[in-house]
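Example for tutorial group B:
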């Protein structure tokens, strides 16, 4: 029979029936202390400036987590330490991975639990050194097992990220070569179109259709450009930039009248003018589609903790809840004619400028905030 990961981990730390017995025997005393230990645990996490950041949900979340940690300790001592136990622990591990909790925080956290639980052992068996030793060994083993399960979930996550990166890189290469190959035929179509147009100057309908072909060739070229920009990572040609210029040039490119508020006095940024213009062309273009001909678009600037924030808002109906989480992934779109590269490209460019982009939902309409470090 194939050994499960749990069995393998148990064999590795040498966790067996004798340890199980020791843990069960400790639960009765432990129960009187789990609540206190849970308080100590979160007090210590909150006292650390880095670890505290993971607890963004504030007091109510900490209250809930204290409760779940009490349950966790009960299960730790009562078992059974079987497959469902392992799956439950993996689920907890995946929650930590999902909130991007750095894995090195697990060691310090486990150490707090180790000290406190060893305290329980010491107080229970202080008159019986042999029993004390056996119980300490059992606690040590189960906590190592827990750490191993936690790190196992981090490793699994890393492996799946690697697999995804590999898939994307193969996909990227494929897109790159298709993009290049399509450029030539499109170029030929464009020049032939030009020649044919000159020959049918008197035929209005033919001219109209040729214009439509020309328009579609333009769209196909733009898609290829976006695709190639997306995979190519052109080096940044940086200089000090005034954001008002960048935004005005983006609005001009789209022939848009946009209300720009509190932008003129923003500090300068260090960046690539044409790539940052692309960021705002894409955001403003999306906003125009969302707002429609009757709607409005505005861009508002602010400085938050030394970081420059530019919020692009529109009066459209906002981003559908079902795609919010995947909004910045390639090939996710709500536009009928789009292929979903605009926001992925925006994210890529902004991050290459050491900035961030976030969708911050409002009651009505969408709001995208680009944050960039000041020069
Ligand atoms: C090594 C010891 C740790 C144990 C035993 C532990 C245990 C748990 C448990 C039982 C849950 C509840 C999972 C659920 O809702 O099903 C949880 C969630 C969570 N833990 Fe930990 N934890 C540990 C370390 C940490 C550290 C060091 C931090 C922060 C610095 C942390 C932050 C969180 C947060 C924020 C959640 C909520 C995640 C969510 O619901 O999205 N944990 N943890």
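The residue assignment follows.
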């Amino acid at each position: 029979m194939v050994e499960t990961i749990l069995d393998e981990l148990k064999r590795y730390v040498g966790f067996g029936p004798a340890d199980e017995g020791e843990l069960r025997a400790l639960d009765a005393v432990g129960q009187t202390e789990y609540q206190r230990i849970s308080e100590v645990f979160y007090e210590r996490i909150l006292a650390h400036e880095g670890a505290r950041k993971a607890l963004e949900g504030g007091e109510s979340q900490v209250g809930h987590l204290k409760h779940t940690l009490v349950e966790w300790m009960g299960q730790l001592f009562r078992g059974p330490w079987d497959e469902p136990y392992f799956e439950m622990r993996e689920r907890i591990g995946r929650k930590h991975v999902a909130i991007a909790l750095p894995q090195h925080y697990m060691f310090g956290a486990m150490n707090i639990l180790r000290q406190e639980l060893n305290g329980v052992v010491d107080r229970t068996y202080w008159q019986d050194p042999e029993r004390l030793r056996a119980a300490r060994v059992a606690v040590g083993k189960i906590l190592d097992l827990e750490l191993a399960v936690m790190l196992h979930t981090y490793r699994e996550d890393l492996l799946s990220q690697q697999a995804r990166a590999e898939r994307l890189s193969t996909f990227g290469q494929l897109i790159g070569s298709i993009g290049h190959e399509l450029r030539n035929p499109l170029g030929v179509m464009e020049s032939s179109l030009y020649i044919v147009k000159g020959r049918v100057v008197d035929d209005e309908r033919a001219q109209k259709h040729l214009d439509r072909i020309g328009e579609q060739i333009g769209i196909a070229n733009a898609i290829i450009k976006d695709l190639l920009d997306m995979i190519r990572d052109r080096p940044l040609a940086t200089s000090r930039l005034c954001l008002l210029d960048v935004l005005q040039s983006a609005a001009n490119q789209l022939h848009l009248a946009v209300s720009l508020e509190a932008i003129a006095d923003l500090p300068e940024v260090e960046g690539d003018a044409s790539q940052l213009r692309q960021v705002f062309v894409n955001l403003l273009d999306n906003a125009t589609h969302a707002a429609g001909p009757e709607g409005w678009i505005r861009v508002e600037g602010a400085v938050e903790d030394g970081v420059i924030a530019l919020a692009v808002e529109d009066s459209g109906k906002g981003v559908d809840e079902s795609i919010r989480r995947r909004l910045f992934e390639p090939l996710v779109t709500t536009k009928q004619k789009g292929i979903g590269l605009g926001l992925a490209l925006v994210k890529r460019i902004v991050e290459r400028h050491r900035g961030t982009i976030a969708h911050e939902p409002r009651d009505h309409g969408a709001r995208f905030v680009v944050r960039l470090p000041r020069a």
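The chain has a mean pLDDT of 88. Compare this with the pattern of hydrophobic and polar residues in the output above.
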